[in-house]
């Protein structure tokens, strides 16, 4: 039966892309007022490290876009009023447990926990790290990624300090300009060197040129035209 292997491959893909990673030793340190994470043995403060972090849940509908649309329809009425947020979150968890094709649905009601930019797939990051694509506490979707259609809800988002990011951008641009200028200068220098070398070679050739027969002179003359 070809259905079973395909299903297994799909499950593998999903597990790899979304689940293993979010349990690989990333925990939010609970008692800090600033935003610190412990990753392995390294404590990260996202403001100073410049690392973007997000806390998101998702329901994976695989190829069934209609399922995602139906889920959105069920959730949207609860997203209109902040007072309904607890109901919205419980509803999301329930629907994730019932319908999500990602094991996080069963295990955590779709909750992927906190994760930094670069840990999930690029297309998933593009949604969860965008304030426009995924406003906080609002279910959004259907969004398609390489893993299929999702309904996504972002609970919390910490983007690296804008000022630091701007400083990094300016520094990168200045370095690039310097590199380009230095490259141009070196090219000019090298060109000059080659020209002088060529001139010296020509001069030497001229010195060594023997007083020759008219036949020889004609041959050298034609060579000089190059
Ligand atoms: C997709 O999901 C809908 C429920 O929203 C369901 O009725 C339909 O059978 C599903 N389609 C497939 C192909 O599983």
From TrEMBL:
Its EC number is 5.2.1.8. Residues 173-226 are annotated as: Disordered. The keyword Nuclease does not apply. The keyword Cytoplasm does not apply. It catalyses: [protein]-peptidylproline (omega=180) = [protein]-peptidylproline (omega=0). It is an enzyme of class 5 (isomerase). Residues 173-198 have a biased composition (Basic and acidic residues). The chain crosses the membrane at residues 7-26. Residues 51-156 form the PpiC domain. InterPro entries: PIN4, PPIase_dom_sf, PPIase_PpiC, PPIase_PpiC_CS. Residues 1-17 form the signal peptide. Keywords: Isomerase, Membrane, Rotamase, Signal, Transmembrane, Transmembrane helix. One of its GO terms (biological process) is rRNA processing. GO terms for molecular function: DNA binding; peptidyl-prolyl cis-trans isomerase activity. Belongs to the PpiC/parvulin rotamase family. PIN4 subfamily. This is Peptidyl-prolyl cis-trans isomerase. It comes from Bathycoccus prasinos. The lineage of its organism: Eukaryota, Viridiplantae, Chlorophyta, Mamiellophyceae, Mamiellales.
């Amino acid at each position: 039966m070809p259905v079973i292997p395909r299903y297994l491959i799909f499950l593998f893909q999903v597990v790899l892309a979304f689940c293993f990673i979010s349990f690989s030793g990333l925990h939010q340190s609970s008692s800090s007022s600033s935003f610190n994470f412990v990753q392995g043995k390294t404590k990260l403060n996202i403001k100073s490290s410049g690392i973007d972090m997000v806390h998101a849940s998702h329901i994976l509908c695989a190829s069934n876009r209609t399922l995602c649309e139906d889920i959105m329809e069920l959730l949207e009425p609860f997203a209109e009023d902040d007072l309904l947020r607890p109901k919205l979150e419980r509803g999301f968890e329930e629907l994730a447990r019932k319908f999500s094709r990602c094991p996080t649905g069963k295990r955590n009601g779709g909750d992927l926990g906190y994760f930094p930019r670069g840990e999930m797939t690029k297309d998933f990051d593009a949604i969860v790290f965008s304030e426009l694509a995924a406003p906080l506490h609002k279910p959004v979707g259907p969004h398609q990624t390489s893993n299929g259609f999702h309904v996504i809800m972002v609970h919390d988002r910490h983007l690296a300090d804008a000022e630091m990011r701007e400083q990094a951008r300016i520094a990168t641009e200045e370095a690039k300009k310097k590199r380009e200028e230095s490259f141009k200068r070196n090219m000019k220098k090298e060109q000059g060197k080659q020209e002088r070398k060529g001139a010296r070679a020509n001069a030497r050739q001229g010195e060594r040129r023997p007083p020759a027969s008219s036949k020889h002179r004609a041959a050298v003359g034609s060579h000089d035209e190059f």
